[in-house]
Amino acid sequence: MSDALSAIQKESYKPGDYVFFEGDIENHFYIVETGVVNIFTKDNMGKRISICDIVDGESFGEFALISNSPRSASAQAVTDVVLVKVSEDGFKQLMSELPTWAECMLKSFVDRLQNMTEKIRELEQFKKRD
After folding, report:
1. Can you tell me the distance from the alpha carbon of 40 to that of 42, in angstroms, rounded to the nearest whole number?
2. What is the pLDDT along the chain (130 residues), one digit of tens a residue?
3. Angstrom distances, CA of residue 93 to CA of 4, 23, 30, 53
4. What's the CA gap between 12 and 10, in Å, rounded?
5. pTM of the full predicted structure?
6. Sheet harboring 81-87: ordered strands across?
7. Cβ distance 39 to 30 under 8 Å?
């Protein structure tokens, strides 16, 4: 576990600060210690599309880390935020040494996927009305 702890840093953000941008290539993820972070993307016209708000105890940024691909969305602080930044090595260590944490992480993935699926359904219904 000590290796994982050495791969962790704390970062603070003010409201409106960006944590990362869609398309960034990074090898870490974040856990919200305190505050609210909005995850969003933009449509073809540049209009902001909010995906979800991440709050105390929740994590974000794992998708790009796991898939080794650019960030699929942007992250911006809504309130004063303290984040725990975990490196790729720290992530692997946590997954192997803390099975309960890994289970919670997978549940979080499923919840976000269900949320995104619901948003897609809503968008499709909205398009059909036009």
Report:
1. 7
2. 445 456 788 999 999 999 999 999 988 889 999 999 999 999 888 889 898 899 998 889 887 777 788 898 999 999 999 999 988 787 777 777 777 766 676 777 767 777 777 777 777 677 676 6
3. 6, 26, 15, 26
4. 7
5. 0.74
6. 8-13, 81-87, 28-34, 59-60
7. no
Q: Is the CB of residue 13 less than 8 Å from the CB of residue 19?
A: yes
What are the C-alpha distances in Å from 40 to residues 3, 32, 45, 47, 77? 32, 16, 14, 10, 11
For residue 18, the one-letter residue type is Y
